[in-house]
Amino acid sequence: MSLGENVKRAREERKFTQEQLADKLGVTFQAVSSWERDEYKPDTENLIHLAAILDVSVSSLVEEKSNLFKTKKAIYNWEHMKTYVKTTAKNHKLKDSMKAVDFAVQAHEGQKRKKSDIPYIYHPLNLACHALSMGIIDDEIIAGCLLHDVIEDCNKTLDDLPVTDGAKEIVRLMTHEKEDGADRKKVMDAYYDALAKNPKAALVKCLDRCNNLTTMSWGLSKDRIYRNIRETEEYYPMLLKVLKETPEYNDAAWLLKYQIESMLDIYKRLM
Question: Cα dist. 57→52, 215, 227, 271 in Å?
């Protein structure tokens, strides 16, 4: 794709009109239109500003992709995953998980994964399927996977959750306190320290990071990718150590370490 095509695609993904993007840049909409038609190219200052507004890297705008490879954002159908989780939960009498599936689907209804048209419920279902595929048949953990974002993203409270206290505690620990730049390090330290004290929550958080790392290539800015890599390298060895030291999660710790560190290495090499 040409620079113009990349600009147009990124603009439309963020649902900006040419006029809205032009206003943010301080240029005319005719200028934006000419860039998208590849009649003219934005100067360096506008290109950097464009990337910041569209929350993508400069390289993703200027790189001409030949579309040699077909990519896909969803590997599994979320409704099939839902059926699998519900069936497995029923077979193993995981009462919290059975209630959590329908609650999560309803709570996340209409939400999409960032920078995609994939229903958001794909994410918590992915975590639950990931755990089950590793042999983690634990009602609190599967329910925690399914509900981990509903307080943060769906205006729900702990009292709203149709699960027992152990699952609620995982969701509470997973819920991220909002922070500003100055307090970020302090908030993050406290957040991960609390997770590390609860092996079940640490497991859900590692599953969450695995899935989130796989979606960084969907159009995150280079700065955001750098931040995610640094955060993963700083905090996740501590969580993985907790899992390794918990006998029932020892196999899961090996797999999660391999998955997380492999993805980090791939991103570093490509960047």
Answer: 8, 15, 13, 11
174 & 243 share domain: yes
DSSP 181: G
**Residue entry with tokens 């969803």:** 74
Query: Which sign, positive or negative, has the C-alpha torsion 121, 126, 127, 131?
Result: positive
Which regions of the chain does DSSP assign to beta strands (E)?
Answer: none
The residue written with tokens 């996977």 in the block is: 145
Same domain, 41 and 96: no
Whether residue 159 contacts residue 181, with contact meaning beta carbons closer than 8 Å, is answered with no
Span 33-88, pLDDT tens digits:
999 999 989 988 888 888 889 888 787 788 765 555 677 778 899 999 999 999 99
Do 133 and 25 fall into the same domain? no
Residues 95 and 57 grouped into a single domain: no
Q: Give yes or no: residues 26 and 82 share one domain.
A: no
Structure tokens at 86: 């519900």
CB burial class (10 A; 0-12, 13-18, 19+) of residue 264? middle
pTM of the predicted model, to two decimals? 0.78
**The domain that contains 88 carries what CATH number?**
1.10.3210.10
Give the list of residues 6+ apart from residue 261 with CB closer than 8 angstroms, or none: none
User: Which distant-in-sequence residues (6+ apart) come within 8 Å of 189 by Cβ?
Assistant: none
Range of the domain at 10: 3-62
Residue (of 216, 247, 251, 250) closest to 230 by Cα position: 216
pLDDT > 90: percent of the chain:
68
Which tokens sit at 119? Answer: 């229903």
d(CA 76, CA 82): 10
Encoded tokens for 37 = 């038609």
- Domain CATH code at residue 36: 1.10.260.40
Compute the distance between CA of residue 229 and CA of residue 233 in angstroms, rounded to an integer: 6
